[in-house]
Amino acid sequence: RVRLLLVLAGLPEPLIDHQISHPDGSLQYRLDLSYPKVRLAIEYDGAHHDLIGQRGPDLVRREDLEGQGWVFVVIVATQLLANPAGVLARVVAAMGRCGMPVAPLREEWRRHLTSRPA
Fold it and tell me: What are the two backbone dihedrals, phi and then psi, of residue 56, each rounded to the nearest 5 degrees?
């Protein structure tokens, strides 16, 4: 749904499941959605992130990548369902911080992803 929201709003289509490798070529991290040229990652934290074993490693991964210049927008289900316009605003603001040009948003997304109580 996050990717659909971005594309329907007219934002550039992000890469899906971008892989970041160690210097030896082995897999280090994966990102849900990203714009690697400007180091912008968009992560969706579903309900599984509330599990004890998932939140800690995700936070460490984000901190490590932020130290390498990546900017993160983290979206949770309640935000996406209740306020897709707010999610778009956060992504657009992050794109601006990363130096990405952003055209005016299209309203097409509103036909498919309307706000509703979370």
Answer: -60, -55
